[in-house]
């Protein structure tokens, strides 16, 4: 592929990421983190983190720091919150290219970057922003720099790699340290490079990581360890340092962490099957191939081979998979490894023309995947979120025309891969410009938050009252902290109440004069179901919300 075409492809992908800026944050995590970032920006408290004025002890602060600073530049809006994470996603794509280029030729490196940049998981986490986007970036940057040191022994690369690990830990905890350990540890063992396992320079790495962790550690110590009398998450005598360095990560394995959703070991892999679309087939085939190959080689990696990606993925997956609490995005930290594993299989099949039987099996199935990428927008427009306007159809139609052009063009090589790239980009332009905005109309927190801001309702005149949904987004879009009341007697004249059916019934039974200013449907939009997506059965899956003004 020519240089200008490569630049055009990645520019288009970046544009899709920024189209997602127009999509509101989704409950619970993204809305919560946006609210915390806004609150941090407003208060100026960067080392001690608060949520709605209360002590916050859960995620490390890097995302909040980055988004709070971004909001100072772009304002308290979607762009202000999302810009740093989108920027780090682009860094991750570049880091994947540079890391892969150390071990493979430029074609594999570029394709690895393209696979990472266009898998559905990346499009999701550049729109529904959580800590994993930045974490993934720090980890692959650390891997790139440490791999540079491994090959050149230049100490600057080692220091930069250690600093990136530290920054990753400030983003989401010790997993940022363990992924590189898993990757290089398995690589050293299978290459029988025993001298690499223990080296004095690793002490320097520990020092660099410790220095990077100092600001966060000071904040945790001052906020929690110095104040054992504070009640945090229902507990007293809570150590912020212990929580971060032990309970939040290892406690999910030992049971010390109260979060437990009993997810099976296969949970993360099952979710990767859609997260890696449209490249899922090649990822699964590539992973199985790598495992079989290493077993046949009696757990030995040759001189010119690497096991960083496969070993890093497998060991990281196992450590995350035994956790008592899992969510689909937890495995996204190793998406760059997955992209390289996927690309290696695609390169074998379509560039080196190896494994012809497997290629003949996967090729028609991948064309079915491509067909599904075309059909999905049409199904959404016909059966889920219809439009009386023509423009939502424009993007799917253009995607189809581009795909047909690529198929018919004699100048386009590797048509299956090129068409897959074009269609997944087109699909996500459609999702960000039509599907997600329609979907977010059913998340009442952002709708009501904007209502509060537009109507200039003071925060001391607006309250949650027996609202049964999440409503996390309300604080960010109201640009204020919205409190709750527990008794209708607390609702004075001029007060607005954000409530559900139960609360409305109690208001009506109280005999107090009131008027319903706003009402609509509320749904937990990150837990989609077939019945919700079906326009004919959607309403029965939703709960009603009301904004009631007391007279």
From TrEMBL:
Listed name of the protein: Glycosyltransferase family 39 protein
Membrane topology, as annotated: Multi-pass membrane protein
Gene Ontology MF annotations: pentosyltransferase activity
PANTHER family referenced in this protein's UniProt entry, alphabetically: MANNOSYLTRANSFERASE YKCB-RELATED, UNDECAPRENYL PHOSPHATE-ALPHA-4-AMINO-4-DEOXY-L-ARABINOSE ARABINOSYL TRANSFERASE
Stretches that traverse the bilayer: 6-23, 79-100, 106-126, 156-189, 201-221, 272-295, 307-323, 329-350, 362-384, 390-409, 416-436
Domain Glycosyltransferase RgtA/B/C/D-like per the UniProt entry, residue ranges: 58-217
Gene Ontology CC terms: plasma membrane
GO BP terms in the entry: lipopolysaccharide biosynthetic process; response to iron(III) ion
Any Pfam family the entry gives: PMT_2
Domain of life: Bacteria
Plastid as UniProt keyword: no
InterPro entries: LipidA_mod_glycosyltrf_83, RgtA/B/C-like
Compartmental location: Cell membrane
This protein's UniProt keywords: Cell membrane, Glycosyltransferase, Membrane, Transferase, Transmembrane, Transmembrane helix
């Amino acid at each position: 592929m020519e240089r200008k075409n490569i630049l055009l492809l990645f520019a288009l992908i970046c544009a899709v990421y920024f189209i997602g800026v127009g999509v509101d944050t989704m409950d619970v995590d993204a809305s919560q983190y946006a609210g915390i970032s806004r609150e941090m920006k407003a208060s100026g408290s960067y080392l001690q983190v608060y949520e709605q004025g209360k002590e916050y002890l859960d995620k490390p602060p890097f995302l909040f720091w980055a988004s709070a600073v971004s909001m100072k530049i772009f304002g308290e809006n979607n762009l202000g919150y999302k810009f740093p994470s989108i920027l780090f996603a682009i860094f991750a794509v570049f880091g994947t290219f540079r890391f892969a280029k150390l071990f493979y030729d430029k074609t594999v490196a570029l394709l690895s970057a393209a696979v990472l940049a266009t898998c559905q998981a990346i499009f999701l986490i550049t729109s529904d922003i959580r800590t994993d986007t930045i974490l993934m970036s720090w980890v692959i940057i650390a891997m790139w720099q440490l791999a540079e040191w491994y090959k050149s022994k230049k100490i600057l690369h080692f220091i930069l790699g250690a600093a990136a690990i530290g920054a990753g830990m400030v983003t989401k905890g010790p997993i940022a340290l363990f992924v590189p350990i898993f990757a290089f540890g398995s690589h050293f063992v299978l290459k029988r490079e025993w001298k690499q396992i223990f080296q004095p320079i690793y002490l320097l790495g520990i020092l660099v990581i410790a220095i990077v962790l100092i600001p966060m550690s000071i904040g945790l110590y001052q906020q929690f360890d110095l104040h054992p009398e504070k009640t945090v998450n229902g507990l007293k005598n809570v150590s912020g340092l212990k929580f971060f360095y032990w309970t939040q990560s290892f406690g999910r394995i030992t049971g010390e962490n109260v979060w437990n959703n009993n997810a099976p070991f296969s949970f993360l892999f099952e979710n990767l099957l859609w997260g890696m679309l449209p490249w899922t087939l090649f990822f699964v085939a590539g992973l199985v191939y790598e495992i079989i190959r290493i077993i046949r080689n009696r757990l030995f990696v040759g001189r010119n081979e690497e096991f960083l990606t496969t070993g890093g993925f497998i060991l990281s997956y196992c450590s995350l998979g035994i956790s008592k609490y899992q969510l689909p995005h937890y495995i996204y930290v190793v998406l760059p490894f997955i992209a390289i594993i996927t690309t290696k299989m695609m390169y074998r099949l379509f560039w080196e023309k190896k494994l012809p039987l497997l290629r003949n099996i996967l090729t028609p199935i991948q064309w079915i995947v491509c067909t599904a990428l075309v059909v999905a927008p049409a199904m959404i427009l016909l059966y889920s979120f219809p439009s009386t306007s023509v423009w939502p159809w424009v993007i799917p139609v253009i995607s189809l025309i581009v795909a047909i052009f690529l198929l018919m063009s004699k100048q386009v090589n590797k048509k299956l891969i090129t068409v897959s790239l074009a269609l997944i980009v087109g699909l996500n332009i459609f999702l960000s410009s039509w599907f997600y905005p329609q979907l977010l109309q059913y998340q009442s927190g952002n709708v009501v938050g904007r209502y509060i801001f537009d109507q200039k309702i003071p925060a001391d005149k607006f309250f949650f009252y027996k609202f049964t949904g999440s409503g996390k987004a309300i604080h960010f879009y109201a640009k204020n902290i919205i409190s709750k009341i527990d008794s209708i007697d607390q609702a004075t004249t001029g007060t607005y109440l954000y409530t559900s059916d139960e609360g409305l019934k109690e208001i009506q039974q109280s005999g107090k004069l009131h008027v319903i200013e706003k009402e609509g449907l509320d749904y937990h939009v990150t837990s989609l179901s077939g019945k919700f997506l079906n326009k004919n059965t959607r309403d029965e899956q939703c709960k009603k919300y009301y904004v009631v003004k007391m007279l």
